Amino acid sequence: MKKKTVKRDMNKTKKERKFHIEFQNSSQRLAWAMFQKQDVTFLSGDAGTAKTYLATAFAIHECLQNRKKIVICRPIVQAGESLGYLPGDFQEKVDPYMRPIYDSIDKLVGAGEQMKKVEGNTEVAPIAFLRGRTLDNSICILDEAQNATTTQLVLFLSRLGKNSKMIITGDPAQSDIGKESGFTKVVDALDALPGIGIMKFSKEDIVRHPLVNSMLEKLKGI
């Protein structure tokens, strides 16, 4: 099967900028250190704690500095609504689901040669197509893993190859598949296993609009 690399229309007005990340709190620094030390890292926490952004930033860093490939996976699950049949080829069908990661890439590198290198070394790989593969020399991201079943998570984790790392992000409070979610179960089962890092963000780590924290607290349990 032909591999799917990321190709998408770029905003030509964007300027190239040298890749750089500034940590906004101590939890982000701790997560980055965990990426460097561990082979598999789970990022768990509320919306707005920069889980996807941090995972993407580390993948870009490793791509630019250490020539690692970036593999992006995300469960194809719609948030409480059905959009029906999506027209187009493979890339056009999955692009809406991958937009948060694409946005992070845009923020981190903008346009130019670095973007070309990142895009040329990035593969979008649906979980269903991973069986039988070994992902060597890669930074593999499974984003929104609260929408993955235990079977899907096991499938993803067992693709880990030589000289690779995996980052799995999830918000247990915002699963669209309810009890079928395997994220918390897998995190709990792998806790304390050597080579596994588990970073749990708190509401104090939210870096979006200040109201996000307050709203999530008020809406809890509704």
Outline of the structure:
With 222 residues, the chain is of the alpha/beta class. It has one domain: P-loop containing nucleotide triphosphate hydrolases (Rossmann fold), CATH 3.40.50.300. Helix content is 37%, strand content 13%.
Structure characterization notes:
This protein has 7 helices and 6 strands; from the N terminus they run αβαβααββαβαβα. Helix 5 (150-157) links the parallel strand 4 and strand 5 (165-170). The protein has a 6-stranded parallel β-sheet, sandwiched between helices. The protein has one domain (26-77, 88-219): 3-Layer(aba) Sandwich (Rossmann fold), CATH 3.40.50.300. Helix 2 (51-66) crosses helix 3. It is 37% helix and 13% strand. By secondary structure, the protein is an alpha/beta fold. Mean pLDDT is 87; it is low at 79-83.
Mean pLDDT: 87
Which architecture would the CATH scheme give at its second level?
3-Layer(aba) Sandwich
Gyration radius, in Å: 17 Å
CATH topology: Rossmann fold
- What percent of residues are in strands? 5-15%
The CATH class turns out to be: Alpha Beta
* Whole-number total of structural domains: 1
Could you name the CATH homologous superfamily? P-loop containing nucleotide triphosphate hydrolases
Give the number of helices.
7
Spatial shape? globular
Structural class: alpha/beta
Task: Supply database-style keywords.
Rossmann fold, 6 strands, 222 residues, alpha/beta
What's the arrangement of secondary structure elements?
Blueprint: H1 26-37, E1 40-44, H2 51-66, E2 69-73, H3 90-109, H4 113-120, E3 122-124, E4 138-142, H5 150-157, E5 165-170, H6 183-190, E6 196-200, H7 210-219
Parallel strand pairs: 1-5, 1-6, 2-3, 2-4, 4-5
Helix pairs in contact: 2-3
